[in-house]
Specification:
About 55% of the residues lie in helices and about 20% in strands. With about 130 residues, it is α+β, with helices and mostly antiparallel strands. Strands 1-2-3-4 form a 4-stranded mixed sheet, covered by helices on one side. β1 and β2 form a beta hairpin. The chain is flat and about 50 Å long. The termini are far apart.
């Protein structure tokens, strides 16, 4: 489904992406988890996943445009995203384009760590104490 444009690049949403978010939510409800867990499933499988994948793909698109390529569209689907990019590039430019998507996760890591520190008081890689009973 077409769902708009970002930076002049059309964004398409595969029908299975919202379906995957619905299934994640329903499985949390069916397992009898508390409402906080259901809310977390809705947020993580829905808008947070969508935004994270979109920003990742936009990293590829921005780098490709800087290298003189064109971006036909971005497809968001349950297993991630696909940036459909056209144009011939040199190997170094291909490495830049390929690495620009994953590089977008570094600022997001800072954002999530800052939010966790704000809400929880500290940041740790431990899962101890993070479970909702």
């Amino acid at each position: 489904f077409p769902c708009g444009q970002v930076l002049g690049t059309p964004i398409r949403l595969h029908v299975f992406l919202p379906l995957a978010a619905i299934l994640a939510t329903l499985s949390t409800v069916a397992a009898g988890h508390p409402w906080q867990s259901v809310l977390l499933a809705v947020l993580v499988a829905g808008p947070l996943l969508l935004i994270t994948v979109l920003v990742h793909e936009l990293g590829h698109v921005i780098a490709a445009k800087r290298c003189g390529c064109t971006a036909d569209h971005i497809l968001l689907w349950p297993l991630g995203g696909l940036a459909f990019i056209g144009g011939a590039v040199k190997p170094k430019e291909q490495i830049l384009i390929s690495g620009s998507g994953p590089a977008t996760h570094l600022p997001m890591l800072g954002l999530w760590a800052g939010l966790l520190a704000l809400l929880h008081g500290s940041v740790t890689l431990s899962t101890h104490g993070l479970w909702i009973d």
